[in-house]
Amino acid sequence: MDPTSFCAPSSSSGSSSSTKAWIVHGLVVGAAVVVALGAHAYLYLSRSGKFRSRVIGIIPARFASSRFPGKPLVQILGKPMIQRTWERAKMATTLDQVVVATDDEKIAECCRGFGADVIMTSESCLNGTERCNEALQKLEKKYDVVVNIQGDEPLIEPEVIDGIVKALQAAPDAVFSTAVTSLTPEDSFDPNRVKCVVDTHGYAIYFSRGLIPYNKSAKVNPKYPYMLHLGIQSYDTKFLKIYPELPSTPLQLEEDLEQLKVLENGYKMKVIKVDHEAHGIDAPEDVEKIERFMCERNLS
To answer: Angle CA(115)–CA(117)–CA(118) in degrees, nearest 5?
Structure first.
C-alpha cells in the first residue's frame, strides 16, 4: 500500500500540546538532594551554570538489526527514519550538537545527504551506549552530558530530550537519566515494550520486558499506573567512559537490557515521567502503524 494513501486532511495540527506539559518525577530538585550534597554545594552547582552544561545528542544507528535489517533507512512518508529522528533531535534546546554514530557506510552516506554530522564507529559495539562512548572519544570537542537518542523513535518530542538533560543536570548523585510514559493495556505483555518502576524520589528501581509490578492475579490491574520506558537516555560523560569496562550482570544478560547493568553495578538513574505517545519501530509492520498515526495528526 502507498503510505501516503491514508493521509487525509485532519482537524488536528502538529503534536498534542499536552505532550509539552510533562509530569516530572524529580526534575525539580527537592530537599533530599540538598541535604545529601549540602546546601552550599548544591547552590554552587546550580548557579554556576557550569555543571554538566555541555551537551551532545548522539543517534546510534546500525544496519545489521536482527529483527529489522536496515531499519534506520526505512522510508516513513517519504523520508528515512534516521532523518526524521535527527530533525526532531535538532529541535531540542539543550543540545549543543547532534551527530549520528554508525558502523555502516550506507547509513553514513544517507545522513550526510540530509546534512547530519556522522561519526563512524566499529561493528563490535554491543549496544547503543557503547556506540555513543566510541563516538564521544572521536569528537574534538569535550562534553559533560551525552544523550543517547534512539533512531527508531522518529516522533520523539524535543521537550522529552530537554527534560532528561535537565533532570540529570539537577541530580548530581545520578550518572544516568531517562524517561517513561504511561503503558497502554495492549503493550502490557509485549516484550519489546520495556517497563520500569521507580522509587518515591524518582530514581529507577528496575526495568523489565515483563509486566512490572506483577500481581497475584497475573492480570493487568486497570487502576495501577504502569510505566513504559521510552528508551531515550542521557549519561554523565565521566560515567560513559567507564561503562564499557563494567562487568556484565546477571539481570542485564537475562533481560537483555543495558539499563540493568547500570543499576546492578550500584549507580543511580534519574527518571522523569512524560505525556508522550510512544511509537517506536521494532518490526516492519510498525511502519504502517506510525505512518497512519502521522497522517491522522498532520505530522507528515
So the answer is: 120
